[in-house]
């Protein structure tokens, strides 16, 4: 088991560093090609491109695992929804409409309100 980690860890580190280097080079090339011409901005260096890449990862990609703060959320909700009775489902829908600000219930049709 230790033998696998001894081989895998350096390869993973090299792969991450290569991805960062290629990504930074692509960001730098695109920035220096487009933005000075379009918006009159200054050209950037490799290290500034790496900083932009890290900043975008922090702002848009999150940290750690993919999937946000609720792993398997859809799977768990599908299981819960499947175990609900039709009355519970309707109560849940109504509750979510109220909590999300979409009114207490859908509007009644004219024929229902006339009777």
What report would you give on this structure?
The protein is mainly alpha-helical and 115 residues long. It has a domain at 2-61. It has five helices and no strands. 3% of the residues are buried. The mean pLDDT is 82.
Give a brief description.
With 115 residues, the chain is an all-alpha fold.
Properties at a glance:
mainly alpha; 5 helices; 115 residues
Mean pLDDT: 82
Beta-strand content: under 5%
Counting DSSP E segments of at least 2 residues, the number of strands comes to 0
Classify the oligomer.
single chain
What is the helical fraction, as a range of percent? Answer: over 70%
Q: Specify the overall morphology.
A: flat
**Gap between N and C termini, in Å?**
75 Å
Class derived from helix and strand content? mainly alpha
Helical region count?
5
Radius of gyration: 26 Å
Poorly predicted parts: none
Described by strand count, sense and barrel closure, the largest sheet is:
none
Q: How are helices and strands ordered from N to C? A: HHHHH
């Amino acid at each position: 088991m230790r033998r696998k980690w001894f081989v895998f860890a350096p390869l993973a580190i090299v792969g991450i560093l290569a991805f960062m280097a290629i990504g930074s080079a692509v960001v730098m090339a695109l920035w220096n090609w487009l933005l000075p011409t379009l918006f009159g901005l200054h050209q950037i260096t490799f290290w500034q491109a790496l900083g932009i890449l890290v900043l975008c990862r922090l702002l848009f990609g999150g940290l750690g695992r993919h999937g946000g703060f609720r792993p398997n959320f859809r799977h768990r909700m599908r299981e819960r929804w499947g175990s609900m009775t039709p009355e519970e489902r309707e109560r849940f829908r109504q509750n979510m409409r109220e909590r999300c600000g979409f009114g207490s219930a859908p509007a009644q049709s004219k024929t229902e309100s006339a009777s």
